[in-house]
Description:
With 266 residues, the protein is α/β, with parallel strands linked by helices. The protein has helices spanning 12-21, 35-42, 61-71, 86-94, 108-138, 143-169, 188-193, 204-207, 210-221; strands spanning 4-8, 28-32, 49-53, 76-81, 100-103, 173-178, 183-186, 230-236, 239-249, 255-263.
Amino acid sequence: MTSTLLLIDDEDNILRSLKRLFRREPYRVLTARSGPEALDLLRHEDVSVILSDQRMPGMTGSELLKQVKTTHPQTIRLIMSGYTELESVTSAINDGAVFKFLVKPWEDDKLIEHIREAFDIHEFLVQKERQRLTLKAQNRSLDFDLRYQKEESDLYLQGMKLAQSILEHVPVMILGLDDQGTLVSANAVARQQLPNDAVIGLPMDMALPGPLVEKLNTLLSDRPTGGPDGQFNMNYQDEPFRFWYSRFKGPGNAQGLILVGCPDIE
């Protein structure tokens, strides 16, 4: 079954440009010119990925995607707008309604990569759900196994919460970046070091100082060859810092960089 991309924008010329951009990609492309029209399409279309403009009459993109998060939680939701609209979508990003914020005007190659990544993540979620349903059917008559799975899941969630709590309290800054250079994680110390308007989901060049961004761009560009993990020293916020970095690989094709930093007291 062909996967489907839904493009939403109130400007016809933008929709035409986006359709041309994705015409060689292996998925079906649908369009809508408003939030209500998109919601109507979603009632009878199976959509894997949504790319919506933010500023539209009647219903903004973030308002639309908050509804879609409730009605179609497995659909991967991206929003695209100018830098000036970032503040208006921050709440949706923090609520998990928006997977990624993309900036207009877009770069064709990067936008195609973002959409491919979104389809990879959607496929991963669909496969996980299929596995869950298959497992549930196989064990429908085995009450003990179901109870055991719930206990195991609870323990896993507790472990995840504990791990997150530990990261929050580690007295050094810890940042996570995906392979596109988007800020995906920051512990308490890191958030204190970031600008006040920096939020998860921002490109790193909007959230981090320029010299650090240049270094991280170099490290991320090494990913095709694997590149070793390592460390480097540089001034950060007018203070000598030592940074350690390590690459990670997540679900689907998701990959990126974990960065740990602390003042260099030597």
